[in-house]
Amino acid sequence: MRYFKQRNIRSVLIISALFFHIFLLLDKETTYAQTINAKPSLHWFDAKELCIEGKGWPDTRNFYDRLPAKAMGVVRSGLWTLSEDTPGMVVRFVTDATSLSARWTLRKERTALPNMPASGASGLDLYVRFKGEWRWLGAARPDDSGSKEQRLTTGMSPGLRECMLYLPIRNGIDKLEIGVPEGARCEMPPARQNTTKSVVFYGTSIVHGIAASRPGMAYPAILCRRLDCTMINLGFSGNAVCEPEIATLLAELDPSAYMLDPLPNMNAEMVTERMPAFIAKIREAHPKTPIILVENTEMGDAPVNPSRRNGYSASNAVLRKIFEQRVKAGDKKLFYIRGDKLLGTDGEGTVDRVHPSDLGFMRMANEMEPILRRALRAGR
Questions:
Q1: Which domain holds residue 202?
Q2: Which of 30, 38, 102, 218 yields a CA-CA distance of 20 to 30 A from 206?
Q3: Do 184 and 198 reside in the same domain of the chain?
Q4: Looking at the structure, do residues 290 and 325 belong to the same domain, yes or no?
């Protein structure tokens, strides 16, 4: 009897020891998993403390607006609302962080468009200077839960780097912060080596950046990365019709060049009535600043649907005539970009016949770059 009792006690002890060992293993695995999945402690920097580029006017109603506060009530309400979007604005900074995060507060609840993903409309786009050139490094977009705190990139080797973060194309920003691991640096960058002043882009949804997949893929962003200069993006989706109020505002700026690309929002009659005065207003304020006129692009399906060309062919013809008249009158700082090959000739450059895809924007930049470089040389 005693033998059986001792045997039972021994069995209970062995089983208890096994359960305790299993508990320790499970607890260790849980602790390990929590350690692996835990977010690193981050130090957050307000982007306003760093270098903000792309603002034409410092006195804005909200910090990240594109038009000055005085324009409210002067420009049309629809255009003013679009000016609260942040295409063309970037935060430039230097960091030695091995990972970068961002958290941002958007002004609009709608984060995407029917022809544009949230990554472009409301996301952030990160580039790094690598061997003297700007290279893509990472991006962040609002997720389905509505969270606006995302990791931009991770796993970088240690070292001090100059970075550039593009703000959303079709949304506005109330607040933006950049997160780096505790102890890492995030500070003001050196001055750009290229002393070229900003290039001002004025135009339609295409200048605005619709429908790029990332903010850095709009053609003004591509061009200014290649030239390593700053930009002021004054694209207003569906609202670039060359009002005198906008001409007055553009004339207040002091850029290295103006690129005017409003024709997709204008018919031939509007071009005839408004474009000469619009150019003249800018030229009066800036006699020696290059102005580049851009034709309407060829619609993607025009080769097999020629009727598409009727409207914009007439507008392009009027613009060409205005250009030739001004050059003949002695304007030596006026340049011209034809629209027939801007998107390529295979019909693959748009998402909806009109708005460029990333491929289309890249093709536009390739066609425009030589002329923009020539204009900038002429302006020196």
A1: 192-380
A2: 102
A3: no
A4: yes
pLDDT digit string, tens, across residues 235-274: 999 999 999 999 999 999 999 999 999 999 999 999 999 9
Residue 176 DSSP SS3: strand
100 and 178 in contact (C-beta within 8 Å)? yes
Of 264, 375, 242, the closest CA to residue 313 belongs to 264
Residues 101 and 165 in one domain: yes
Is there a domain that residue 82 lies in? no
- Name the token pair of 123: 């996301």
Residue 148 shares a structural domain with residue 276: no
CATH of residue 246: 3.40.50.1110
Half-sphere exposure of 129 (CA within 13 A, CB side): 18
pLDDT digits over 59-108, tens only? 999 999 999 999 999 999 999 999 999 999 999 999 999 999 999 999 99
Task: Write the pLDDT tens digit of every residue in 52-65.
Answer: 999 999 999 999 99
Which residues neighbour 109 within 8 Å (Cβ) at sequence distance 6 or greater? Answer: none
Cα separation values, 52 from 47, 118, 132, 357, Å = 7, 22, 21, 27
Q: Which residues are paired to 343 by β-bridges?
A: none
pTM: predicted TM-score of the whole model, two decimal places: 0.88
Q: Are residues 172 and 290 in the same domain?
A: no
